[in-house]
Design a protein that fits this description.
The complex is a heterodimer of chains A (about 100) and B (about 325).
Chain A: E1 11-17, E2 24-31, H1 35-46, E3 54-59, H2 71-79
Antiparallel strand pairs in A: 1-2, 1-3
Chain B: H1 2-14, H2 27-46, H3 48-52, H4 61-86, H5 92-100, H6 118-135, H7 144-172, H8 176-195, H9 207-212, H10 220-238, E1 248-250, E2 255-257, H11 263-273, H12 277-290, H13 292-313
Antiparallel strand pairs in B: 1-2
Helix pairs in contact in B: 2-4, 4-7, 6-7, 6-8, 6-10
Classes of the chains: A alpha+beta (about 100), B mainly alpha (about 325).
Chain lengths: ~100, ~325
């Protein structure tokens, strides 16, 4: 058993909700043998000063990320659609509450 | 192709756009960062040892709780930094290997012993003070994960320095023996702290490249001077004396002049000949090796639970 090459504990990405009503936000990663340990370690590593009230732990291998080199084509369709923004529309100053 | 990528990379650096792990980067940039971040992580981890030495003998419950919290912070800082280094493609085990085999360095300051309680004060004030001086500019490092880790580290580190200063302040107001103890700690920690900023600029060959890549924002000598200027003022409040007879305010430069640094000692400690090099590494290795069964047991338990879950599903 112990002669086998030892495996590192898997890597987990940690997301923390700082207070009720806010989103969980990525804060970093850590190693843990399982999900429960990931949450307990995240408590110790990322919330020593009351930074959070809720923790998500996701094993890093399940995170799928876009490729930075695809950024140009990936976000291109949004580039020329300024009309999606309210500031695109010029209205008379008399219009209130809009 | 390579040329285009280099240009994009350089352009980002120029415009202060952070480099993220999946972005293309020159191999040398990657390697330099791996070395720098892992050494920084090792320093946090080894840095727990000299202070851990005093946890059981802290003079009051308050001091003990504070010291435990501080040492726990250092562990946390090490973990943030190891994670940041891992995004560059090195594994945690590889980094531990490099530390334990002596291939990787850590800050040489931790190869000095903590002989009295006053040393905990001196470490907080000077060692953490010097670390903060070094780390604040690193919050703007061009490598995103490193910069983000440093923001968290700096936020937490500030209490470390204040608690150290408070220890010295208390000793300074105490009995003659306590004042002597505080002065003795300052005498022993001052010069090693000054050396924490690394060799003089003209003997630091990597500085120019690192400044161009914005993984270093100030030179060693600039930061060292800044630190000395700050400490030379703070020490007055402690009623202690910095052990440098050449330390004098220079009206013309607007800085404090200081005496010659014993660089021979610096290189000796880096080479492994400091007072505690062997002891520190052995303690680290022992902790790692004797913890092996815990790591294995946790993995085995996780696998067992997985298997049980699989049985329930099918």
């Amino acid at each position: 058993m112990s002669s086998q090459p030892k495996q590192e504990w898997p890597l987990w990405e940690i997301f923390i909700r700082s207070k009720q009503g806010l989103d969980h936000k990525h804060v970093g990663s850590l190693h843990a043998a399982d999900a429960q340990m990931a949450i307990e370690n995240a408590r110790d590593v990322y919330t020593r000063r009351m930074e959070g009230i809720s923790i998500w732990a996701v094993e890093s291998k399940y995170i799928h990320a876009s490729n930075p080199s695809d950024a140009e084509s990936l976000y291109d369709p949004a580039n020329d659609k300024a009309y999606r923004h309210p500031t695109f529309y010029t209205l008379p100053d008399e219009v209130k509450h809009m | 192709m390579e040329k285009g990528l280099t240009d994009i990379f350089r352009d980002k650096i120029q415009k202060e756009i952070r480099i993220e792990p999946k972005d293309w980067m020159p191999e040398k940039y990657r390697q330099t960062l791996i070395r720098q971040i892992s050494q920084h992580a090792h320093s946090e981890i080894v840095g727990m040892l000299p202070e851990g030495n005093w946890i059981t003998r802290a003079p009051t419950l308050r001091r003990k709780a504070i010291l435990i919290a501080k040492v726990q912070d250092e562990a946390g800082h090490g973990l943030y930094l190891y994670s940041a280094a891992e995004t560059l493609g090195i594994t945690r085990d590889e980094m531990y290997d490099q530390l334990h085999s002596g291939k990787a360095k850590y800050s040489s300051i931790f190869n000095y012993p903590t002989l009295t309680w006053a040393d905990i004060g001196a470490i907080g004030w000077l060692v953490d003070g010097a670390a903060i001086m070094n780390q604040v500019p690193l919050c703007r490092s061009s490598f995103g994960p490193y910069a983000r880790a440093m923001v968290r580290v700096c936020k937490e580190e500030s209490f470390h320095q204040r608690q150290g200063f408070e220890i010295l302040l208390t000793l300074g107001k105490g009995s003659p023996e306590q004042r002597r103890m505080a002065q003795d700690a300052l005498n022993r920690w001052w010069w090693p702290s000054i050396m924490m900023f690394g060799p003089k600029d003209d003997e630091s060959p990597n500085t120019i490249q690192s400044m161009q890549w914005k993984i270093k924002r100030f030179t060693n000598d600039e930061l060292r001077q800044k630190f000395i200027d700050v400490c030379a003022e703070q020490v007055k409040l402690l009623g202690l004396v910095i052990p440098d007879k050449d330390l004098t305010w220079n009206e013309a430069t607007g800085h404090y002049d200081f005496g010659p640094i014993n660089w021979d000692e610096f290189w000796q400690v880096i080479k492994g000949n400091g007072p505690c090099n062997k002891e520190r590494l052995e303690t680290r290795k022992k902790a790692w090796e004797e913890g092996a069964w815990v790591r294995e047991a946790a993995s085995a338990y996780a696998e067992k639970i997985e298997r049980k879950k699989a049985l329930l599903v099918y």
